[in-house]
Automatic annotation (TrEMBL):
ANK repeats: 76-114
Taxonomic source organism: Absidia glauca
Record's keyword annotation contains Repeat: yes
Name listed for the protein in its UniProt record: Uncharacterized protein
Superkingdom field: Eukaryota
InterPro entries: Ankyrin_rpt, Ankyrin_rpt-contain_sf, Multifunctional_regulatory
Keyword terms of this UniProt record: ANK repeat, Repeat
Chain's gene name: ABSGL_07003.1 scaffold 8715
């Protein structure tokens, strides 16, 4: 397939689908793209990278400030994290690496697709690595600021620590 007539957005989508890291890097560095661009099914470049196991491309994408990793596509209501988890049926190691990258990038594990499935519900029972990554992320979401000790909470009003 030649991309000569394709827009930068279409080229970015194709590069993410086909794991063409150099092309993704080139487009992102040019700044001539819309990271919110979607195809007819509502997939973003991150959706396609996760769906097709394009790990290196996904790494480039999650580092963009304005990327929305929790956007649902129109077809299944999947986020890139749903697709990364589903990739476990093709390559467990790549799927786990993509899940980790997406979680570090701020992907929300609580988003449900059209079938009311969260990414955690899609993990195969035998896949402990992905289950553990999602469980750790769940624990992090459940801790709020009130659960974290703050040095300012201790001591008297005059700034001295109490015994």
């Amino acid at each position: 397939m030649t991309d000569e007539g394709a827009s930068a957005n279409e080229q970015l989508m194709a590069a993410c689908r086909n794991d063409q890291e150099d092309t993704v890097e080139e487009i992102l560095e040019s700044g001539n793209y819309d990271i919110k661009y979607t195809d007819g099914a509502g997939n973003t470049a991150a959706h396609l990278a996760a769906k097709y196991g394009s790990l290196a491309c996904l790494e480039w994408l999650v580092n963009l400030d304005d990327i929305d990793l929790n956007i649902k596509n129109r077809m299944e209501g999947n986020t890139p994290l749903h697709y990364a988890v589903e990739f476990q049926t093709q390559d467990v190691d790549t799927a786990a690496a993509m899940v980790d990258i997406l979680l570090q990038g701020g992907a929300d594990i609580k988003v449900e697709n059209r079938n009311k499935m969260t990414p955690s519900m899609l993990v195969l029972p035998k896949n402990k690595e992905i289950s553990d990554l999602l469980a750790q992320s769940t624990a992090a979401y459940e801790i709020d600021d009130a659960d974290i000790a703050n040095d300012d909470d201790y001591g008297s009003d005059d700034g001295e620590a109490s015994d």
